[in-house]
Amino acid sequence: MREPAPAHLLVAEADPRLRDLLRQYLKSQGFLVSAARDADHAGRLLAGLDFDLILLDDSMAGAETFSPGGPVLRLVTSGGKAPGAGEWIAKPFEPKTLCEKINTILDRRPPPAKVVAREVRMGEMRFDIETGRLSRAGAPLRLTATEGQLLRALAADLGQPVGRGELVARLGREGVQAKARAVDVQITRLRRKLEDDPKTPRYLQTVRGAGYMLVGD
Length: 217
Hints:
The structure is a single chain. By secondary structure, the chain is an alpha/beta fold. It folds into two domains: about 100 residues, Rossmann fold; about 100 residues, Orthogonal Bundle (Arc Repressor Mutant, subunit A), CATH 1.10.10. It is built from six helices and eleven strands. A five-stranded parallel sheet has the order 2-1-3-4-5. The chain has a four-stranded antiparallel sheet with strand order 6-7-8-9, covered by helices on one side. It has a two-stranded antiparallel sheet with strand order 10-11. The longest helix has 15 residues. The chain is elongated and about 75 Å long.
């Protein structure tokens, strides 16, 4: 499976030395980091990029009216007035403490919705995931019930390998018929319908050590 993309942080800090230190440290911790020198600069970055979290220097000019529309961690100058609401951390802070605070905020994000395509396109073929129908240039191609189930199971993770054991579970098979070899037989039959050359499959691929993967155009 693909690794999730690293969180993208915007560091809006007026102090150039601290801004550079934060950028370097947070990059070393695996984050994507963009930096802004003032509120106007931050606004321009926000207009063109999406950020998972904004680290905002509370003493920066314009910070009091800055409304990024996303999660914000305010960096409050020691001795200054702490914000009445929202997340904040007082300067000076230990880098490890800041990183822990950032991860705590990011962990509260809802998981991204899984996007499943309604249709898989494979050259002239179209597989309608909702109905389980396969067609070539508009003409229907017959699928058995098991073949349709198998294609749906693979389409649910389009472009990602799915293990044979997982496919067996998704097909809801039990007993002797649930053996992984039965999946191999169904894959072979499907390839005869999907591929121009089943021996060198383009759309229904074998991923060594991981299972099978359906790939669309």
